[in-house]
């Protein structure tokens, strides 16, 4: 079978890092500076009899600011378009902070029919591990998520578990 997976999230949450980690290569540019990825980056991973097509989706977040710039309108359109035909969405957020921008991305997912997996990134930077669970419960209540998976894209922690969740929802 074949699955089409979109990775979405505000700038700097680690979308490109996650995609590179899953694909095992530097296919997408990562940076401390937001909006490094100006175009959609795609990658294919084949495992047993399943082919995963990953898209690192920039653009959705830009709705909040600079919404009139032609380039941003174009990217938003492309980003929303990409979500129409996906089999699974990975909504990536940062472990500690829920921001306006996360909310904007979540709004864009409102009409997405495909299962949305909430992946909470950068847990390696979490000093107070006990605070994660109540926080996850709060964020997890904002929409029906197919699964909630804490990860570290940078270190690879729990990324195989995330991939298993994705595979389970294709
Ligand atoms: P994108 O804008 O969502 O594509 O984010 P990037 O993948 O470019 O990552 C933004 C920054 O966050 C980079 O400096 C990454 O090294 C860093 N980063 C990404 N994932 C993690 C993680 O799991 N842990 C930590 N500590 N940093 C991360
Ligand atoms: Mg990126």
Automatic annotation (TrEMBL):
Residues 35-39 are annotated as: G2. Residues 1-170 form the Era-type G domain. Residues 151-153 are annotated as: G5. Residues 9-16 are annotated as: G1. Coiled coil: none annotated. GO terms for molecular function: GTP binding; GTPase activity; ribosomal small subunit binding; small ribosomal subunit rRNA binding. GO terms for biological process: ribosomal small subunit assembly. GTP binds at residues 9-16, 56-60, 121-124. Residues 56-59 are annotated as: G3. It is a peripheral membrane protein. It is found in: Cytoplasm; Cell membrane. GO terms for cellular component: cytosol; plasma membrane. Residues 121-124 are annotated as: G4. Keywords: Cell membrane, Cytoplasm, GTP-binding, Membrane, Nucleotide-binding, Ribosome biogenesis, RNA-binding, rRNA-binding. The keyword GTP-binding applies. Belongs to the TRAFAC class TrmE-Era-EngA-EngB-Septin-like GTPase superfamily. Era GTPase family. Monomer. An essential GTPase that binds both GDP and GTP, with rapid nucleotide exchange. Plays a role in 16S rRNA processing and 30S ribosomal subunit biogenesis and possibly also in cell cycle regulation and energy metabolism. This is GTPase Era. The lineage of its organism: Bacteria, Pseudomonadati, Pseudomonadota, Gammaproteobacteria, Oceanospirillales. The chain holds residues 4 to 173 of 299 of the full protein.
